[in-house]
Design goal:
Elements: H1 3-9, H2 38-69, H3 75-85, H4 87-101, H5 109-146, E1 153-160, E2 166-170, H6 173-183, E3 187-188, E4 196-206, E5 210-217, E6 220-232, E7 235-244, H7 246-257
Antiparallel strand pairs: 1-2, 1-4, 3-7, 4-5, 5-6, 6-7
Helix pairs in contact: 2-3, 2-4, 2-5, 4-5, 6-7
């Protein structure tokens, strides 16, 4: 073969083997100049995304069932718990899809299943050992509040929100009966980053000690939000929340008798009248 033939064989034109779009008759397509091979992207990410989609479908379905069955007195927690408890079903669904499509023998399949298993185990463990006991205790305290009898409450102590300064110590039967009656108006409530204007730490002394934090909300006049709490030193544990209009009226009337309402005592820093 002459010089001319060798030159043509090394030509950089479209028909030569050195061109930017060169293609071998039997070899793979060469990727150059930022060209993307979508088949390669699918091989690397598509299998994992398909398994995650199957997992997410089970979680969404579990959330809907949890909300429908009201497994918690809080709507958001019903949604969250339903999804959390459905994560093992999501892992099983992803595994069945992987077996059906043969992903368990290909890159991206096994690693995705392992990560989904780790996430599911952590989520279910958190729900079973932390959230469910907290919600059960919150439900118990809510039922206790609803079933209160005036004769069971010996005294009501109202402190600043830090529990450091006692503002009122109530033992009068009429005031206690008013509080117990107002509790019937309390309804479960899920806070969504509310802004409190004032807060008070309230303790009911009786057959069973019940600790609460009452707060007024900016933009919601005439409503008080209550939280079931347990204070141990500087640590405060929360078990749920409710809101009530009648308790707002009782709290305002009780503090106003002592000239404390609207003076900032709930924040622990009294303002001048």
């Amino acid at each position: 073969m002459g010089w001319h033939g060798m030159a043509c064989g090394n030509d950089d034109g479209p028909s030569g083997n050195g061109g930017t779009n060169a293609r071998s008759p039997t070899g793979p397509r060469v990727i150059e100049n930022g060209e993307r091979d979508w088949r390669y992207i699918y091989m690397k990410w598509g299998r994992g995304l398909a398994l995650v989609a199957a997992y997410a479908m089970a979680v969404f379905f579990g959330s809907a069932v949890g909300l429908l069955l009201r497994i918690s007195h809080e709507s958001f927690m019903s949604l969250w718990l339903g999804g959390a408890l459905a994560t093992p079903v999501g892992v099983l669904l992803a595994w069945l899809l992987a077996r059906w499509r043969g992903y368990t023998r290909k890159p991206g399949g096994v690693s995705t299943l392992c990560w989904l298993g780790v996430i599911s185990t952590a989520t279910v463990g958190f729900a079973i050992f932390l959230e469910i006991p907290r919600l059960q205790e919150g439900q118990r305290r809510y039922e206790l509040l609803q079933s209160l009898d005036a004769g069971e409450v010996k005294a009501i102590a109202i402190y600043d929100k830090y529990g450091e300064r006692e503002l009122r110590w109530i033992t009068g039967a009429k005031d206690i009966a008013g509080f117990v009656s107002s509790c019937k108006d309390a309804k479960p409530w899920t806070p969504q980053h509310p802004r409190h204007s004032q807060s008070w730490y309230v303790v009911l002394e009786g057959q069973e000690r019940l600790e609460l934090i009452f707060s007024t909300l900016e933009g919601s006049p005439g409503v008080v939000v209550g939280k079931y709490v347990e204070k141990r030193g500087n640590v405060t544990r929360y078990y749920g929340a409710f809101r009530s209009r009648r308790l707002h009226t009782w709290l305002m009337s009780t503090l106003d008798k002592a000239g404390l309402w609207g003076r900032g005592y709930g924040d622990g820093a009294p303002k001048s009248p």
